[in-house]
């Protein structure tokens, strides 16, 4: 009955002495697109890594799709329906586009444990489809992606996420390395997700983009959530003053 | 916002095709093989001899069968190890233990392959009592594979779960396994296998084959090598195992984030490499009819050299089984070639070292030219 798709309570992550994430309380509603902004090192990627179970949190709770979850690893999180574009992209440079799209979720002709036979044609066909629907332009999908430009590689990672999106999409600075044209394309993909009703967390430094795309903006500063503002009730200056610490104490803010 | 106007997918735009480019690499290696053979043929002709061909009238055959046999045997025995080492390197690791594993496995395997009576007398090299002799041939073979698998499993677990660098883990295994083979041998070789065990390598699995003027017999190790090479080439290209091996070698963190069980896969790859060292040990002892503690010495470097010459990148993620097979052929031709022009063994070893370093330099150079953006 609740329309909350993702909630964190007191989510905390320490790296040795570094408090990268401290007591983060965050809520994402069904169909909602939320931006996460903040300075470099504010803890945005750390937040993403806890939700996607790439790392195990120090403390706190995560509720996803109505249940408290404690995913063992990124595969478990993905199988639960969380698709992610990591800041580091998580691509294998020596593999071609279909292999990257289907890395860790290959399609098989028949199964035989580790020696399961890959259905390369099916994966290639579905890759072409995915690229078509996301309007990502890749000259030759059979190239190892090492030979592609930074933007094209980023597009592969985004196409992978968009193609498999189900319950929640997280993108950590998806347009960081992209040109104007490619950025526009990615923004179209994000709008497509919104139309499909798929909720999303978008980490971005680009405030213009954030105001164009999302419903709500959450500001991180020094590992804490310091503000959660509806897009229509705030503006760029307001956000910047939260990011830089002119506004908002780190205490008691609730996203 | 701008609507994407151009065709989003398709193969237009760029002229080259990646699969062709990748294959071109292996064609280059093949061309190098041919070139090297020609060089040695020319060098031999200068001295009035021949590298490949039979110039003597009192011996039949077009080719220098003796030399071919030696080369084929060398490619086969070390090449089987190289098949495993190739997979480990593509995975982003390294295996320095394979030569010592051959030594230890050879000793243990041979002990289970002994015959009770040699020319009517009790076997002078007997390791166990008579009830452990004249065993069916399958027993030493299984023992050999099991030894290799066991050692490979330890390698894999060390690398995957203790996170020590593969170089150190397999170096430890290299030293320990050599120690184990010395301990087992106690200074004496283990010899006199059963007749059936001797036929494993010396028999004719495919009968005597004649391809035109090329004549072939008693080369079971080569048959096994080719069969294993084909098997693993197929596995590396068409199965999940291969895909994940390349993915991990290419970007381990990405493989982990994609949900691949990286640690388990590493254990599997190192185990397969160990098993292949076991196969090699069985074939080698069966060929030589004896096992000594020093067997397989430095084979690990030969195997790594074969892989690197064959275009397998030491930084992981790139290379192929086919490349390694070609690399093995080149390696063997060079060694035989130096013998054929009567270069001293010392020089041979020095050159071998230079070849390994040269191949790595070439790989790094290739890498620099390949990456852009
Ligand atoms: N694996 C790690 N070990 C130690 N410290 C880490 C680790 N990962 C992140 N940190 C630290 O945690 C803090 C938060 O890092 P994080 O990557 O989450 O920042 P971010 O908000 O994503 O920044 P950016 O905008 O630059 O991507 C930083 O101080 C960083 O140095
Ligand atoms: Mg970040």
Walk me through this protein's architecture.
The complex is a heterodimer of chains A (255) and B (373). With 255 residues, chain A is an alpha/beta fold. Chain A has one domain (4-244): Rossmann fold. Chain A has helices spanning 44-51, 74-79, 97-101, 120-133, 150-164, 180-195, 207-213, 236-244; strands spanning 4-15, 18-29, 33-38, 59-64, 67-69, 82-85, 108-110, 117-118, 168-172, 200-203, 216-221, 224-230. In chain A, helix 5 (150-164) runs parallel beside helix 6 (180-195). Chain A is globular. The mean pLDDT of chain A is 90. Chain B has a two-stranded antiparallel ribbon. Chain B has a two-stranded antiparallel sheet with strand order 3-6. In chain B, strands 4-5 form a two-stranded antiparallel ribbon. In chain B, 65% of the residues lie in helices and 4% in strands. Residues 1-22 of chain B have low confidence and may be disordered. The radius of gyration of chain B is 23 Å and the shape is globular. Chain B has a single domain (64-370), classed as Orthogonal Bundle (ABC transporter involved in vitamin B12 uptake, BtuC). Chain B has 13 helices and 6 strands. In chain B, strand 1 and strand 2 (121-122) form a beta hairpin. In chain B, helix 2 (65-90) runs antiparallel to helix 10 (262-288), helix 3 crosses helix 10 (262-288) and helix 11 (299-309) crosses helix 13 (345-370). Chain B is mostly helical. The longest helix of chain B has 29 residues, at 18-46. The two termini of chain B are 27 Å apart. At the A-B interface, helix 2, strand 8, helix 4 and helix 6 of A face helix 1, helix 8 and helix 9 of B. Bound molecules: adenosine-5'-triphosphate (ATP) and magnesium ion.
């Amino acid at each position: 009955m609740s329309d909350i798709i993702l909630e964190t309570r007191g989510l905390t992550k320490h790296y040795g002495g570094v408090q990268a994430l401290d007591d983060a309380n965050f809520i994402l509603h069904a169909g909602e697109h939320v931006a996460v902004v903040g300075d470099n090192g504010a803890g945005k990627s750390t937040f993403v890594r806890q939700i996607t179970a790439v790392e195990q949190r120090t403390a706190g709770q995560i509720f996803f799709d109505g249940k408290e979850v404690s995913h063992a690893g990124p595969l478990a999180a993905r199988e639960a329906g969380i698709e992610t574009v990591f800041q580091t992209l998580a691509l294998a440079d020596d593999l071609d586009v279909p292999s990257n799209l289907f890395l860790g979720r290959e399609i098989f002709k028949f199964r035989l444990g580790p020696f399961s036979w890959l259905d390369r044609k099916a994966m290639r066909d579905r890759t072409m489809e995915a690229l078509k629907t996301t309007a990502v332009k890749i000259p030759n999908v059979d190239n190892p992606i090492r030979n592609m430009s930074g933007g094209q590689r980023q597009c592969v990672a985004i196409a992978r996420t968009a193609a498999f999106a189900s319950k929640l999409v997280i993108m950590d600075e998806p347009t960081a390395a992209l040109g104007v044209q490619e950025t526009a394309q990615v923004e179209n993909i994000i709008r497509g997700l919104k139309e499909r009703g798929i909720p999303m967390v978008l980490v971005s430094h680009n405030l213009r983009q954030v105001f164009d795309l999302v419903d709500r903006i959450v500001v991180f500063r020094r590992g804490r959530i310091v503000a959660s503002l509806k897009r229509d009730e705030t503006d760029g200056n307001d956000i910047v003053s939260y990011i830089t610490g002119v506004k908002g104490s780190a205490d008691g803010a609730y996203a | 916002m701008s609507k994407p106007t151009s065709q989003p997918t398709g193969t237009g735009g760029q002229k080259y095709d990646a699969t062709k480019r990748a294959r071109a690499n292996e064609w280059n290696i093949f061309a190098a093989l041919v070139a090297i053979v020609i060089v040695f043929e020319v060098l031999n002709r200068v001295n009035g001899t021949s590298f490949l061909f039979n110039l003597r009238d009192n011996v039949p055959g077009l080719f220098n069968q003796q030399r071919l046999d030696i080369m084929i045997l060398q490619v086969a025995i070390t090449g089987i190890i190289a098949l495993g080492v190739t997979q480990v390197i593509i995975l982003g690791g390294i295996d320095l233990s394979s030569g010592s594993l051959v030594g230890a496995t050879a000793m243990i395997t041979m002990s289970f392959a002994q015959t009770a009576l040699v020319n009517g007398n009790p076997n002078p090299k007997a390791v166990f009592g008579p009830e452990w002799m004249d065993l069916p041939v399958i027993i030493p073979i299984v023992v050999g594979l099991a030894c290799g698998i066991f050692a490979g499993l330890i390698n894999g677990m060390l690398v995957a779960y203790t996170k020590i660098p593969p170089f150190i883990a397999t170096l430890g295994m290299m030293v320990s396994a050599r120690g184990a083979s010395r301990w087992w041998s106690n200074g004496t070789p283990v010899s006199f296998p059963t007749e059936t065990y001797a036929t494993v390598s010396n028999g004719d699995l495919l009968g005597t084959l004649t391809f035109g003027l090329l004549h072939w017999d008693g080369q079971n190790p080569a048959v096994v090598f080719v069969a294993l090479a084909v098997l693993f080439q197929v596995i590396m290209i068409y199965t999940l195992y291969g895909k994940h091996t390349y993915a991990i070698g290419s970007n381990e963190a990405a493989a982990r984030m994609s949900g691949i069980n990286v640690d388990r896969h590493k254990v599997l790859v190192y185990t397969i490499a160990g098993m292949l060292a076991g196969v090699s040990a069985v074939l080698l002892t069966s060929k030589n009819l004896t096992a000594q503690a020093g067997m397989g010495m430095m084979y690990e470097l030969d195997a790594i050299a074969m892989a690197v010459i064959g275009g397998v990148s030491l930084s992981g993620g790139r290379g192929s089984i086919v490349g390694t097979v070609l690399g093995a052929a080149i390696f063997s031709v060079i060694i035989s070639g130096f013998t054929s022009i009567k270069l001293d063994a010392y020089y041979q070893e020095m050159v071998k070292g230079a070849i390994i370093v040269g191949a790595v330099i070439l790989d790094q150079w290739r890498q620099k030219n390949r990456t852009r953006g």
